[in-house]
Specification:
Length: about 400
């Protein structure tokens, strides 16, 4: 009996795509993300092999280069980092690159309608936002959300939510189902509620950053309605954070820092940035490596607060300290190239900018592997469904 490779390739591709659609699971505990990765490691090579056997279509070097070119500076910087400081602590980054590559080669011929990706983003944000609310109601914030640091889960979930909002606005006419439209609205409301209940201020910045992005929308009539809704969301977030006292607490942290008291949420961040930028000049090219804080302290630097942070709470500072100018420019060039590549796709631009904003107060790219998984796979799904992309349907 002769195998029908085309049929097998079709079903393997659908299975791989289904796993990719669960990309927000990477925000959860290691056992969840590990199981998802392992499925990709099995289904990815299988799909690629079946596609080769079926000869459904040929992938050109130009197409591969077009997709990977924006990521090369960051991949290259990571490899140079490994050469300078060793692999220890970076295995998850390598896992992310392998997963990213397998998903692309496995799914590149699978053209997806943007409306389907809107459904995928909606379900991811709705389920995790609702789960976050339930987790906070049941367990409070002492153990984080799902056992994960709330400053990791909530801002990155907000980034996906804001991208969903932009998808809703730019692809409104493709959404035929009224049920889906209402579900998107309910999903964004649920995300706003989760942000307020978690008291994570960085997530508010993600929503605020989307306002100027909406100004470049090509549909001016839609822009007026969308911008008004987004501004109302931002006003609601700011108002609720004022009500809970989180904004006043931030202002008080700044005043205390100016008075010489650094033992506060923002004060610790300011001290970390000062220390990191000072230590950067000792190893400006390749940085101090991972666990840079402890190495810096062992080298004679002092820190006014008795803590040992795992990172410097800012992407730019963290990359300069741990990987030097090599990592910093790799990160910067990839961000610029991703935005340039997506100049006609506002959703992808929003996704990149959102993670950039998260990196203003957190460690989004440099050491937080969940961010790269979520950003990378989210980008891939949006890329495969880009309106101007032509590819055979499977």
């Amino acid at each position: 009996m002769q195998l029908n490779y085309s049929v097998l390739h079709k079903w393997a591709t659908v299975a791989l795509f289904s796993v990719a659609c669960c990309f927000c699971l990477y925000l959860l505990r290691e056992d969840f993300s590990s199981a998802t990765r392992k499925l990709v490691y099995v289904l990815g090579p299988l799909t690629i092999f079946l596609g080769y056997q079926a000869k459904d279509s040929a992938l050109t070097f130009k197409e591969v280069l077009s997709f990977f070119a924006p990521w090369f500076p960051w991949f290259g910087a990571t490899l140079l980092f490994i050469c300078a400081h060793g692999l220890s602590g970076l295995s998850k980054h390598l896992h992310a690159y392998i997963l990213f590559t397998l998903l692309y080669f496995g799914l590149w011929s699978f053209y997806i309608k943007r409306s389907l990706i809107i459904v995928v983003f909606t379900l991811n944000v709705f389920i995790l936002s609702l789960g976050s609310i339930i987790s906070i109601l049941c367990n409070g914030l002492d153990d984080g959300i799902f056992g994960i640091n709330k400053n990791v889960v909530i801002p990155e979930l907000a980034a996906i939510s804001v991208t969903l909002f932009v998808l809703y606005c730019t692809d409104f006419r493709e959404i035929q189902s009224k049920l889906l439209k209402w579900l998107i609205i309910i999903t964004i409301i649920a995300n706003v509620v989760a942000i307020v209940m978690s008291e994570v201020r960085t997530a508010v910045l993600v929503y605020l950053a989307a306002v100027p992005l909406m100004l470049i929308s090509v549909d001016k009539l839609l822009l007026k309605k969308a911008l008004l809704i987004l501004i109302l969301c931002c006003i609601c977030l700011i108002g609720l954070f004022l009500y809970t006292g989180r904004i006043q607490q931030g202002i008080n942290d700044i005043l205390l820092f100016q008075a010489g008291q650094s033992n506060s949420s923002l004060g610790i961040r300011f001290e970390l940035w000062k220390l990191g930028l000072s230590a950067f000049f000792d190893h400006p090219i390749s940085g101090w490596g991972l666990s840079a804080f402890q190495r810096i302290i062992n080298d004679g630097y002092t820190f006014p607060i008795d803590i040992v942070p795992s990172h410097f709470h800012n992407d730019m500072v963290n990359l300069l300290v741990t990987g030097g100018l090599i990592s910093f420019f790799g990160w910067l060039m990839t961000n610029i190239l991703l935005i340039k590549d997506a100049c006609n796709d506002l959703a992808r631009v929003t996704l990149v900018i959102s993670f950039f904003v998260i990196g203003l107060t957190e460690n989004s790219w440099g050491g937080n592997n969940t961010a790269f998984y979520t950003l990378g796979v989210g980008w891939l799904l949006l890329y495969l469904s880009a309106p101007n992309r032509s590819s055979p349907h499977i």
